[in-house]
Design a protein that fits this description.
Layout: E1 4-9, E2 14-20, H1 24-43, H2 46-62, H3 64-75, H4 79-96, E3 107-108, E4 113-121, E5 124-128, H5 134-147, E6 151-155, H6 162-173, E7 181-183, H7 188-197, E8 201-207, H8 210-222, E9 227-230, E10 236-239, H9 245-257, E11 269-273, H10 277-289, H11 309-317, E12 323-327, E13 346-349, E14 365-371, H12 374-381, E15 386-387, E16 389-393, H13 397-406, E17 411-414, E18 429-430, E19 433-434, E20 447-455
Parallel strand pairs: 5-6, 5-8, 6-7, 8-9, 10-11, 10-16, 11-14, 13-14, 16-17
Antiparallel strand pairs: 1-2, 3-4, 4-20, 9-19, 12-13, 15-18
Helix pairs in contact: 2-4, 3-4, 3-6, 4-5, 9-10
The chain binds 7-thionicotinamide-adenine-dinucleotide phosphate (TAP).
The site of 7-thionicotinamide-adenine-dinucleotide phosphate has 33 residues, from helix 7 and helix 8.
């Protein structure tokens, strides 16, 4: 190994352990093991692969509490959220355990014979994961990839590897063959880059920032390697004057401050029709004040700290010169947790040209902007490089349909803020990504179509 990396509990700023940094040679050894394991895995009967994945799902389900506690310590996620995340991993595995027996090819009518298609696995898939949702995002890659007959090498973010390491151990406990699913810890510039350049890693799934994702895509292009990219976002929460304003305001904090705003789908811009702008802010203020920020181990906590001191100063930098309307709470100076990387939820009145109105903050800061009418709302919602998620609040069905079609985002919801369900497709447009994860087709995205013609002429 090339040294170790010290992990920090973001709620206390105290060290919690050391994790090894793999070298390029160690990545190559892992890929070599994966190549061997994949051949055997792809050769199993579909039902046998399905059984092993169901067993993996059951083992994860039995370890939800342990995985959740690890995420609380390593990432500062509130315990309630962390339990949801661990259960979600089990559900994703369970959902894609159905895929090996459902990856049907086609029989295509042709002259002189029989033509059929097969969904062939790529071989070894490299999955690169960010620090904000370490378990869930990992599972969106590894579960469908394994179901489609691939082996997986997974690189967690250096800051948050603990749940991924444990999932690698649980996979073996559940009966996955050695080498089929390996977690390789280390830095992005070494381990992640080697996934991109290694000739035997035949597909890369990258979730992270748009700038690193662009480099990963360029590297994959050089190797003619397919890549799925899940990148940044600046999603709009659009509130029309005809909406249920009480409900829209009450739900807005959760839509942006969940995971301390470190969520690619965070509705970090609230666009409010001008005639109800002041009324909406009046309703939002008590909702933000009531948003519970504090000890992640406390069952009632809704928001924990930011991931690191340096990330907190990046987020604070966005507030320079900003017009803060009001703020929520954070542990006070005399609180035992005061040393953690806290930042209170912050609501800002922003001009359209301000960077808070256009750039991803990835922290608990929301910009509230007025708009005039429906075309103006769509124009403003689309006025960023991103296109990941968004919400539309209106009681007018026709308007909901028109705006949902007009906003260039991959995942929208009307009168709700839902973005992620394992059974529905997820992913971004524009600079938010390339390709889709989850949903009924994800396993197929980890295969290449092979067409075979059988002559029947005598
Ligand atoms: P990044 O800095 O881009 O890192 C993401 C992952 O890529 C980490 O594992 C990182 O490793 C690795 N990496 C860094 N440099 C690399 C390189 N040159 N080659 C290959 N891999 C490399 O992002 P982050 O700060 O962890 O995450 C925040 C970003 O992710 C935000 O922009 C957020 O919007 C986005 N995100 C998007 C989504 C979806 S689904 N669209 C979901 C979550 C997050 P190390 O960190 O270990 O060096």
């Amino acid at each position: 190994m090339s040294g170790t990396f010290t992990l920090i509990n973001p709620a206390t700023a105290q060290p919690i352990g050391e994790v090894a940094r793999a070298s390029v040679e160690q990545v190559d050894e892992a890929v070599a093991r994966a190549v061997i394991a994949q051949r055997a895995w792809a050769g199993l009967a579909p039902v046998a692969r399905a059984d092993v994945l169901r067993s993996f799902a059951r083992v994860v389900e039995a370890h939800v509490e342990e995985l959740a506690q690890l995420e609380v310590r390593n990432s500062g996620h509130p315990i309630g959220s962390a339990r949801w995340e661990a259960s979600h991993v089990a559900q994703v595995l369970n959902f894609y355990a159905g895929a090996p027996e459902r990856l049907s090819g086609r029989q295509i009518p042709v002259a002189g014979g029989l033509d059929v298609t097969f969904h062939e696995p790529y071989g070894v898939v490299g999955v690169i994961v960010p620090w904000n949702f370490p378990m869930t995002i990992a599972s969106w890659g590894f579960a469908p990839a394994l179901a489609a007959g691939n082996a997986v090498v997974l690189k967690p973010a250096e800051l948050t590897p603990l749940t991924a390491i444990r999932l690698g151990e649980l996979a073996l406990e559940a009966g996955l063959p050695e080498g089929l699913f390996q977690v390789v810890t280390g830095s992005g510039s070494v381990v992640g880059q080697r996934f991109v350049s290694h000739p035997d890693v035949r597909k890369v799934v990258f979730t992270g920032s748009t700038s690193v994702g662009t480099d990963v895509a360029a590297g994959c292009a050089r190797e003619l390697k397919p890549v799925t990219l899940e990148l940044g976002g600046k999603s709009a929460n659009i509130v029309f004057a005809d909406a249920d304003l009480e409900k829209a305001a009450a739900s807005a904090p959760g839509a942006v401050f969940d995971n301390a705003g470190q969520d690619c789908c965070a509705r970090s811009r609230i666009l409010v029709q001008r005639s109800v702008y002041d009324r909406f802010l009046e309703l939002l203020e008590p909702a933000v004040a009531a948003w519970r920020v504090g000890d992640p181990a406390d069952e009632s906590t809704e928001m924990g700290p930011l991931i690191s001191a340096s990330h907190r100063s990046t987020v604070e930098g966005f507030l320079d010169g900003a017009e803060v309307a009001f703020r929520g709470s954070a542990p006070a100076a005399d609180d035992p947790l005061a040393g953690g990387f806290w930042l209170p939820p912050t609501v800002v009145r922003a001009d359209r040209g301000h960077r808070l109105a256009r750039e991803e903050v990835f922290g608990p800061v929301v910009a509230v902007l007025p708009f005039d009418d429906e075309p103006d709302a769509i124009r403003l919602a689309n006025d960023t490089i991103y296109g990941l998620a968004g919400s539309i609040w209106t009681e007018n069905l026709g308007r909901a349909v028109r705006v949902a079609r007009g906003v260039k985002s991959g995942v929208l919801s009307v009168n709700s803020h839902s973005s992620v369900r394992y059974s529905t497709p997820f992913g971004g447009m524009k600079a938010s990504g390339l390709g889709r994860e989850l949903g009924p087709d994800a396993a197929e995205h980890f295969t290449e179509t092979k067409n075979v013609f059988f002559a029947t002429d005598v």
